[in-house]
Amino acid sequence: MTAICILIVFKCLVQNKSLSLRRKSLSRQALPPPGIKYNQRKVELNLTTIYFIRHAEPDLRIKDEVHRPLTKSGTRQAERLVESFAGLQIDTVYSSPAVRAYATVKPLAHSRNLTVRTLEGLHERRIGTWVDDFETFSKRQWSDFGYKLEDGESLGEAQSRNLAALRHILH
């Protein structure tokens, strides 16, 4: 199946990397954009880093896209995320409402005492019906971003929805 995007967002303030600016170089017309603080000779940038994580191994015997769980191997993969992200500050965890996506980030969120926030816009493209020959279907979709099956979603539609969800997270 296609990759689902799961977002883990953390924010950091750039410290020890200040930009030296001459005070006279900033006029009223050249004020820093939003998110940048100017204090005498130092500019601090408020940065947001986003990690996109593909869901762990799903149980493909379950044909329901939303309720498909992880396999035992997938559960172990999800648990390894805790170690993979050790030492990184994480403030917020987002997931698609798909069970396999939520189950992938739940151990990491739990290890940080964070709640997984689900956002419908993060769901992978909706195919419509189960496709036995997924490779052929996928090639056709990638060659035509408007192609979709009945009750399904094109890659272009999925991309627009995913980008709207990302904008929602960032604002």
Structural summary, described in words:
By secondary structure, the chain is of the alpha+beta class. It has four helices and five strands, in the order E-E-E-H-E-H-E-H-H. It has helices at residues 72-84, 99-111, 134-143, 155-170, and strands at residues 6-13, 36-39, 42-53, 92-95, 116-118. A five-stranded mixed β-sheet has the order 2-3-1-4-5, with helices on one face. Helix 2 links the parallel strand 4 (92-95) and strand 5. The radius of gyration is 20 Å and the shape is globular. The two termini are 30 Å apart.
Brief summary of the model shown:
With 171 residues, this protein is α+β, with helices and mostly antiparallel strands. The protein has helices at residues 72-84, 99-111, 134-143, 155-170, and strands at residues 6-13, 36-39, 42-53, 92-95, 116-118.
- H/E order of the elements? EEEHEHEHH
Structural class: alpha+beta
Indicate the mean pLDDT: 79
- Spatially, the strands of the biggest sheet line up as 2-3-1-4-5
Residue share in helix: 25-40%
Specify the biggest β-sheet: 5 strands, mixed
DSSP strand count: 5
Q: What overall geometry do the principal axes of the alpha carbons give?
A: globular
Give the N-to-C terminal Cα separation: 30 Å
Relative strand content: 15-25%
Q: Please work out how many helical segments DSSP would assign.
A: 4
Uncertain segments are 1-30
Computed Rg: 20 Å
